[in-house]
């Protein structure tokens, strides 16, 4: 095959596509060539689209995925933190609603003796992005050079920033292509996309938080376990100590979904408070990160949250990246409370429905170039299992544009059905998307 520049290519893209289309395995040389040629532009977008679809339909062997990931890492720079005086460890979440864990986790782990080189992304669709959340802090910047990252890891112990263009450029192109060609769901391509960036990041250890449930990109445990197993293998192949946890994402994490709203909640956790589920997951992941880095003794993450050392690292991290940790976080100009129509117990709160509402209120984006509202989002007042009194708020919607309220609000009041309550009185079961409240017996009534 001859490229547009006139040079002779080692393989023909059509032959590579046919091989995978027909259920065959690609050789190491074919994988190396197709990733390199695609990055150079010698493989056309439509050809890579066809190959991605063949991978989606026919899968990849363990060897193929490992080689594919290594080729994407080799398409750019691999960072090296070996000169630091402490081990490096990082965490990756596959995404969920209200997932503000990184904000408290990175400072906590740094306070316990590890360095955390966290390269994060922005949100797309119903899941929020760590960088969007941090950029709601006045002055904070996500853009750092490698030299600045190295200095901050040395002086602060943690950095959270955007990945540079030199890291896994092949994945950047392929990720955008998969998003518009219906090939996002391929486990080999998901795993290689995530792990190529994390391996290129240069961390010595990695903990994967694989979300499962309605608010995650993966809804079933079997697929989540397959993805986790694949990624752990890829990390091991690249010399990165990797472990994975499967965590539930049927209900939002914490009590907020939005950007500044979640930053405020993360600061509460760093101050020794915050919702129990956020605190529990932060401590669990921090302990796993420290163990993966070989730090089996020393300060426990729970102590770092209690004694204020994690908060100290947070404040230094924010300042190092141009932010003001004492600044007032942005607040939305408009709010709208969704009230419980009667006394009841909340039995289900669908994470995806909350995430979609936050997105439509302005906290998220449909396209990468779309702006976000820092103060927009959803504030929860009741979680499943809790009492909801009639007339009291179940949640509060936040946005700068009140015309956005009708869109999510239309999704809240949905189907109703009758229930028996107390002494034979009829009440209504109120459903808002996946919200359900069950009526409580009237005072003095006998239970049946």
Structural features, described:
There is one protein chain. This protein has 448 residues and is α+β, with helices and mostly antiparallel strands. It has three domains: 13-59, Up-down Bundle (Transferase, Pyrimidine Nucleoside Phosphorylase, Chain A, domain 3); 90-320, Nucleoside phosphorylase/phosphoribosyltransferase catalytic domain (Pyrimidine Nucleoside Phosphorylase, Chain A, domain 2), CATH 3.40.1030; 334-439, Aldehyde Oxidoreductase, domain 3. Helices cover 41% and strands 17% of the residues. The chain has helices spanning 13-21, 28-40, 45-58, 62-74, 101-111, 130-134, 146-155, 169-179, 187-201, 221-237, 260-270, 276-292, 301-307, 309-320, 351-363, 406-411, and strands spanning 90-93, 116-120, 158-162, 205-212, 241-248, 256-258, 334-339, 344-348, 377-380, 387-388, 393-399, 416-421, 425-432, 435-439. The strands form four sheets. A five-stranded antiparallel sheet has the order 10-8-14-13-12, with no helix packed on it. It has a four-stranded antiparallel sheet with strand order 6-9-11-7. Helix 4 (62-74) packs across helix 10 and helix 9 runs parallel beside helix 10. The longest helix has 17 residues, at 221-237. The radius of gyration is 24 Å and the shape is globular. Residues 407-448 have low confidence and may be disordered.
């Amino acid at each position: 095959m001859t490229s547009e520049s006139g040079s002779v290519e080692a393989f023909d893209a059509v032959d590579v596509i046919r091989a995978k289309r027909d259920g065959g395995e690609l050789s190491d040389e074919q994988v190396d060539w197709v990733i390199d040629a695609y990055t150079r532009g010698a493989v056309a977008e439509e050809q890579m689209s066809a190959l991605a679809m063949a991978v989606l339909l026919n899968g990849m062997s363990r060897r193929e995925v490992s080689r594919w990931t290594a080729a994407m890492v080799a398409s750019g720079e691999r960072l090296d933190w070996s000169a630091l005086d402490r081990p490096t460890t990082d965490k990756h979440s596959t995404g969920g609603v209200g997932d503000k864990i990184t904000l408290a986790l990175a400072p906590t782990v740094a306070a316990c003796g590890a360095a955390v080189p966290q390269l994060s992304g922005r949100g797309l669709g119903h899941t929020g992005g760590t960088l969007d959340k941090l950029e709601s802090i006045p002055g904070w910047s996500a853009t750092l050079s490698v030299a600045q990252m190295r200095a901050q890891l040395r002086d602060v112990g943690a950095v959270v920033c955007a990945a540079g263009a030199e890291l896994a450029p092949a994945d950047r192109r392929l990720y955008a292509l998969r998003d518009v060609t219906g090939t996002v769901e391929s486990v080999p391509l998901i795993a290689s996309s995530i792990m190529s960036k994390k391996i290129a990041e240069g961390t010595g250890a990695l903990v994967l938080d694989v979300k499962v449930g309605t608010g995650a990109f993966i809804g079933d445990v079997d697929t989540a376990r397959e993805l986790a197993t694949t990624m752990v293998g890829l990390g091991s192949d690249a010399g990165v100590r990797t472990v994975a946890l499967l965590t539930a994402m049927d209900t939002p994490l914490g009590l907020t979904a939005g950007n500044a709203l979640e930053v405020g909640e993360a600061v509460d956790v760093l101050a020794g408070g915050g919702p129990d589920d956020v605190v529990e997951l932060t401590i669990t992941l921090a302990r796993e990160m420290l163990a993966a880095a070989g730090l089996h003794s020393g300060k426990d993450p729970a102590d770092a949250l209690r004694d204020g050392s994690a908060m100290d690292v947070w404040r230094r991290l924010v300042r190092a990246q141009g932010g003001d940790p004492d600044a007032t976080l942005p607040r939305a100009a408009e709010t709208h409370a969704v009230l419980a129509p009667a006394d009841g117990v909340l039995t289900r709160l669908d994470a995806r429905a909350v995430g979609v509402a936050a997105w439509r209120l302005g906290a998220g984006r449909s396209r990468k170039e779309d702006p976000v509202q820092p103060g927009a989002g959803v504030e929860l007042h009741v979680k499943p299992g809790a009492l909801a009194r009639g007339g009291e708020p179940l949640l509060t919607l936040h946005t700068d544009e009140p015309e956005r309220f009708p869109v999510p609000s239309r999704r809240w009041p949905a189907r109703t059905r009758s229930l028996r309550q107390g002494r034979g009185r009829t009440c209504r079961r109120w459903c808002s998307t996946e919200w359900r409240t069950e009526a409580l017996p009237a005072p003095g009534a006998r239970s049946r």
